[in-house]
Amino acid sequence: MAEPRDIGIRARPDLQGETLPFAADGKVAREIVVTGSGASVGLSPGSTVGDWRIDGKIGEGGMGTVHAATHPVIGKRAAIKVVHAELVRSAGMADRFVQEARAVNQIAHPSVVDIFDIGQLPDGRPYLVMELLRGRTLGDRMEQGRMSPLEAIDVLLQIADALVAAHAQRVVHRDLKPDNIYLSDGVGGAVAVKIVDWGIAKLRDDATPRSTSLTTSGVILGTPQYVSPEQARGKSLDERTDIYSLGVIAYEMFLEGPPFVAESVADMVAMHLREPPPPPSDVWPDIPPQLEALLLAMLAKNVEERPSLAAIME
After folding, report:
1. d(CA 299, CA 199)
2. 55, 95, 114, 175: which is the annotated catalytic residue?
3. Which residues of the chain have pLDDT under 50?
4. How far, rounded to the nearest angstrom, does the alpha carbon of residue 269 sit from its chain's CA centroid?
5. Which in 10, 35, 170, 260 has the greatest CB count within 10 A?
6. Burial 24-38 (b: 16+ CB within 10 A, else e)
7. DSSP assignment of 249-269, as one string?
8. pLDDT at 124
């Protein structure tokens, strides 16, 4: 089998990194985007957060920081996610942390990151205590070179299995992307997938509107590179929006690049809404026909034409 040709497709970092709020017309809703260094005051090594002792910072993004921590009595290691101080007053931020904790515990699947405590710092910043992951994100893995078809299939099946569990609990992630998929170190050198960042997940059986839709009127939370057409339109979402986002990820894993590349958020959203994805065989001439058909079906604009997770896992 011939290897896929590298045609130099790479997603623009500003369109695939942090979750962006954007309006239904594809324009970034900059009035609710907060920028800044997000310094974490008072979380130096040796300080305490609840029952946990901070060991050091291990990551930082636009929404907050992640710190390694240890329980001083039982020695358990954990990661503590703390929101940036300047975002504390953002509408829905505390709700997003609560919803993330609720979502992952409702799913309770080994490929979904575990969250086992939640609290608030004296300065008002909410925090989550979760399992400490060792490894790298899927985004980091793809940046380091081509994934073999078998490696991509293994990751795809693990993600799909976790989504089966999530959807069985009526939880829709709504922000699947390579940076939210962690490849942790499994038993015997195997890769164990962990889906993280369930902060904008939709709990479809929750009767509380604030918990089911953490959006501002006319604004949709998501990542333009991986957003489904119906999400971009601000339509009501169900489990099939995750299948579309997974299709974008799968396309990128097998073909070394995303189906759509654009110079702006508006152009990217327009492509998801109207442009058919390039046939995978244009990039990988010897791609198995069944795999090509599956990738294109997952990226169908019409939700009714997308395959089920069971069909993806066959």
Report:
1. 24
2. 175
3. 1-40, 207-218
4. 17
5. 260
6. eebebbeeeeeeeeb
7. HHHHHHHSS-S---SSHHHHH
8. 87
Residues 295 and 151 in one domain: yes
Cα R_g (the chain), whole angstroms:
19
**Overall size of the chain counted in residues:** 314
What is the per-residue DSSP string for 167-181? HHTTEE-S---GGGE
Q: How far apart are CA 101 and CA 98, in angstroms?
A: 5
* Residue 222 placed within a domain: yes
**What confidence score (pLDDT) does residue 91 get?**
61
Q: Are 16 and 177 in contact (CB under 8 A)?
A: yes
The answer to whether residue 175 is catalytic is yes
Residue 1, domain member (yes or no): no
* CATH number where 237 lies: 1.10.510.10
Would you say 139 and 207 are in contact if contact means Cβ atoms under 8 Å apart?
no
Q: Which residue has the tokens 């489990």?
A: 239
Which amino acid, 214?
A: L
User: Residue 234 carries which DSSP code?
Assistant: T
- For residue range 246-263, list pLDDT tens digits in order: 999 999 999 999 999 999
Structural domain including 53 reads: 36-130
CA-CA-CA-CA torsion sign (7, 12, 15, 18): positive
Using DSSP bridges, classify how beta strands 115-120 and 64-70 pair: parallel, antiparallel or unpaired: unpaired
Q: What is the pLDDT of residues 144-161, one digit of tens each?
A: 999 999 999 999 999 999
| Gap between the Cα atoms of 189 and 197, Å rounded | 25
The reported pLDDT for the residue numbered 40 is: 42
Same domain membership, residue 138 and residue 282: yes
Sequence-separated (6 or more) residues with CB below 8 Å from residue 290 = none
How far from chain centre, in Å, is Cα 72?
Answer: 31
Q: What is the dihedral of CA 34, 36, 37, 38, to 10 degrees?
A: -40
Considering 114, 130, 146, which residue would you say is the last residue of a domain?
Answer: 130
